[in-house]
Amino acid sequence: MHIFNIIYSSLLFVFTLLPLVRHDYWIFRVFDYPRLQKLVLNITGIGLWIIFYQRDSIIDLVFLVALSVNTIFLTTLIWPFTPFGKKQVLAVSKSRPGQSISLMITNVLEDNDNYEGCLAEIAKADPDVVILLETNKNWDEQTRKLEENYTYHVRVPLENTYGLLLYSKLKLEDTSVKYLVEKDIPSIHTRVILPCGQPVQLYAVHPTPPVPGENVRSTERDKELLLVADLAKACNLPVIVAGDLNDVAWSHTTELFLKMSGLLDPRRGRGFFNSFNAHHPFMRFPLDHAFTSRHFKLKQIKRLNNFGSDHFPIYLNMQFEPEAVKEQEPLRPDADEIEEAQEKKAKI
């Protein structure tokens, strides 16, 4: 058991240290994802060392202390996403008719054929805007009945798992489909007009993940996110960036995105709202996001029911409050982070 504890603990140290290496290769980036899982495994490791602790053993003491330090480090990383953390997006105190926008973000899983389940979940949540990701021709055809309630729509069905469908009850203006980094990875850029007449710039995105067999580097994902960050930063309108970002809320890349864009994460101070993987409870991460400019406060955020996809849908309801700009503070980049962002955008 002593040897097992040493090997087990050593692997946990490696898995914790790998994401600290600022390299785009997947082996370094993929271990950004399971920080909560690593925390649980660290606590389990501490328990094992306590149970099988050998008195007068320096090795046992070193590993026990090292695991304790590792646990504290991992706790600090995920703490902002617990209900004990500071909220970046404040809660609405009073409803303002005509100034709200609700979104449903759902990666449907291209091979999933439970179209009716998806439509039923949309009908139940009744959002103003629906963003369907990983949608191909079949999904496009089988969800056309959404037009009955959603007058405005943008369709980019693809057979490469990166198709996008956007449906909106609210008027859309100045809509375009962009291929910011890769020629077959689209993003939808559009202005959503709130009932009060206020335009909101919406970016619907789904960059590629750093995984073997698809994209061994995070370079393309990071670049696309940072290019969208630049667009959000330069925009004079309230902004929402939403979609499957193929990155966790607590990663260095996501934090860099928030710092460069000036956007806020409504998850912070509220919970993880893990959206992937719906089929494996222990291996779940928050991959589907909606980040907002400081013009919004939060009415509601929740995870919806799965309908056969490997992702849970995420629902958010936000209220436009222009004075909130003075109440909510974004993360700010330092000189090194600005340089890092420039380097990432220059790659490929």
Automatic annotation (TrEMBL):
Keyword hit for Isomerase: no
| Cross-referenced Pfam families | Exo_endo_phos
Region labeled Disordered — which residues? 326-348
Keyword list (alphabetical) reads: Endonuclease, Hydrolase, Membrane, Nuclease, Transmembrane, Transmembrane helix
What GO annotations for molecular function exist for this entry?
A: endonuclease activity
Origin species, per record, is Mucilaginibacter terrae
Question: What is the protein's given name?
Answer: Endonuclease/exonuclease/phosphatase (EEP) superfamily protein YafD
Q: Does the keyword Oxidoreductase apply?
A: no
Q: Which InterPro entries match?
A: Endo/exonu/phosph_ase_sf, Endo/exonuclease/phosphatase
* Domain spans labelled Endonuclease/exonuclease/phosphatase: 107-311
Which domain of life does this protein belong to? Bacteria
Gene3D superfamilies on file: Endonuclease/exonuclease/phosphatase (3.60.10.10)
Q: What is the lineage of its organism?
A: Bacteria, Pseudomonadati, Bacteroidota, Sphingobacteriia, Sphingobacteriales
Report the transmembrane regions from the record. Answer: 6-27, 39-55, 61-81
